[in-house]
Design a protein that fits this description.
By secondary structure, this protein is an alpha/beta fold. The protein contains ten helices and seven strands.
């Protein structure tokens, strides 16, 4: 007497077998079976054929019991562990996976890397704090219609604090210009906008925070009390509308960009062992800004460039 074969099935497979048996017995049609199983009619037909040919075994996944093709080799796993401990210890999983691909030619899914980093004790799984909800303004329609401008003081490279002057195009989210300087005083800000206009043209408007260092003196920018008047006068002569935001949150896009930069840019500068302002500005212009824009910029509603030529 032939022994009965025992087949181990998951709950999902048992449910599928029941539906396919109903289909075979003409209790339901293919469309209904497809709807029940959330599969295409072609998949259901294939499944029915396998059950008719093999019985219940036809429903069991073919890869059951086989080693997964996706399983990472021990050699690759050890390589990744070495790199995240020695080169990317301060990186988050997303950024680390990007650097592993670009600089080490190692392909690894960020979720796989996250679990590995947690297991290795160099990443903590955190519950995201719920941020205060702000209703962000709708983006402008065209490139050059409005630039959000800000200066961010931070230890970007080396041990001394410096100021990153940054403009973000409101319609596209692109960094339209960025430069490291000692502060955001009169000379630094005017140099920034002269270079901006040479590169891009004259924007229609500039949006900045009225409670920023233009109103409150920073220790590194003693002339800031005069800056707002001079800046307004220069903008008026060029036909640029200067808009003062009522709070930092109103400049939401550039505030979020600064948070992203304080993560990504600081790590990039340290990774490349950049310690001087000249090196940092070269890297910012030639490498970081183009890659940032490629990753984060969006397509504007209107393709028209609203900059005007000086």
């Amino acid at each position: 007497m032939k022994e009965k074969e025992t087949i181990t099935m998951t709950k999902k497979e048992v449910r599928r077998l029941g539906t396919i048996n109903d289909l075979i017995e003409n209790k339901i049609n293919g469309t209904v079976a497809s709807s029940y199983l959330n599969l295409s009619t072609r998949q259901v037909r294939r499944m029915k054929s396998m059950v008719l040919l093999l019985g219940p075994k036809g429903i069991v996944h073919k890869s059951r019991g086989r080693p997964s093709n996706r399983k990472m080799s021990r050699e690759k796993e050890n390589t990744i562990k070495y790199l995240i401990h020695n080169q990317y210890r301060r990186f988050g999983p997303t950024l680390a996976s990007e650097y592993l691909l670009e600089y080490n030619k190692v392909v690894v899914n960020k979720e796989t890397l996250r679990l590995m980093m947690i297991k290795e004790g160099i990443w903590t799984s955190k519950n995201r704090k719920q941020e205060k909800h702000h209703e962000w303004r709708e983006r402008k329609d065209s490139y050059g219609e409005m630039q959000q401008f800000d200066g961010s003081y931070h230890k970007w490279f080396g041990e001394e604090e410096s100021c990153l002057l940054l403009s973000i195009d409101d319609a596209t989210g692109k960094i339209s210009h960025g430069v490291f300087d000692k502060n955001e005083g009169v000379i630094a800000v005017f140099k920034f906008w002269i270079k901006y206009i040479e590169k891009n043209g004259i924007p229609r408007s500039i949006y900045l925070d009225k409670f920023s260092t233009y109103k409150i003196n920073h220790k590194s920018a003693e002339d800031n009390k005069d800056l707002i008047t001079q800046f307004q006068r220069a903008n008026k002569e060029l036909g640029i509308n200067m808009i003062m935001a009522n709070s930092p949150e109103a400049k939401g896009r550039i505030e979020r960009a600064n948070k992203t930069l304080q993560d990504r840019l600081v790590k990039a500068l340290r990774f490349h062992k950049i310690t001087t302002r000249a090196e940092a500005n070269k890297y910012l212009e030639e490498k970081f800004i183009p890659e940032f824009n490629k990753r984060f910029a969006v397509v504007p509603k209107n393709k028209e460039n609203r900059h005007s030529i000086l």
